[in-house]
Structures are given as structure tokens and as C-alpha cells.
Amino acid sequence: MAERAKIACGSVRFNPDEDCEIEVKGRNLNTGMPGQLTLTRGQLCEALNECMELIIGAVRRILENTPPELAADIYRNGLTLTGGGALLHGIDRLLAESTHLDVHIAPNPTECVAKGTAAAFVVVDSLADGFIKSATYLH
């Protein structure tokens, strides 16, 4: 139900001209009984606000601690969002404004995480070496 609501109306920015509603069903936490309610994009946006602040803060901290060579690559190429969260309405624009970087959404963002994981399993031994050797691991 939450995933369906996120896909249908989830947004990190509220625009009254683009509002939508979705009916969700589940257990009412106050009564313990099954129930349903209608959520608007504005309500979902408000619920996501605190999470987005944490994500933006984490991205900024990572960028601040990125080695200069890699920072230059990131500045040149921008950020690429993957996973289902990349489909949240407005997340690319919000991150672009917060980081002053180009932000792109990967083609098929929900599939690329699984494809990348599968590809990593093929080379898992060499990845393990890369994380163990002190020359390739940042302390």
C-alpha cells in the first residue's frame, strides 16, 4: 500500500496545481481495526520532508569528504539516482538545487539496483580485495 501511494502521489515538493489523492487501506493504529483514508500529495510531501532533509544532509557530507579528483568527476557528470526513491516526483530537482549539481534519474531506476547487484556477484572476489587492501580503502 505504501509503495503504491509513493508511486501514485509521492512527491518531495508540493505544487497545488499538481495535487492528487490516493485511497489507502490498512490497520488504524488508534483503533486497531481495519480502515481506509484518503491521502493527498501534499500530505505525502509533508511526511517525506524530514527524510529528505536527512538525505540531503548525507549527500552534502559525502560530497564535502570526497577526494578532489572524484569531486571533479561528480561536478562534470552530476549525480545519478537509482532505486524506487528516484521515482519520487521532484527529487531530482530538489537534490540539484541543494547540491548545485546536475542530477539525473537512471533509466529503469528500480531495475538497475538489482542488475548492479547481480553484476557485483560476478566479480565479488575482486571487490572484496578492493575493500580489504589498505591502498584502496579510505579510513
The name of the CATH architecture is 2-Layer Sandwich
Largest sheet: 2 strands, antiparallel
Broad structural category: alpha+beta
Q: State mean pLDDT (0 to 100 scale).
A: 85
Q: Give the count of helical stretches.
A: 6
CATH superfamily: ATPase, nucleotide binding domain
Shape: globular
Query: Which stretches are poorly predicted, pLDDT < 50 over at least 5 residues?
Result: none
Helical content stands at 40-55%
Radius of gyration: 19 Å
Number of strands: 4
The spatial strand order of the largest sheet comes to: 1-2
CATH class descriptor name = Alpha Beta
CATH topology group: Nucleotidyltransferase, domain 5
Structural key phrases:
nucleotide-binding, 139 residues, globular, 6 helices, two-stranded parallel ribbon, alpha+beta, two-stranded antiparallel ribbon, Nucleotidyltransferase, domain 5
Task: Summarize the topology.
Blueprint lengths: L1 H8 L11 E7 L6 E7 H24 L3 H10 L1 E3 L9 H9 L3 E3 L3 H14 L1 H9 L7
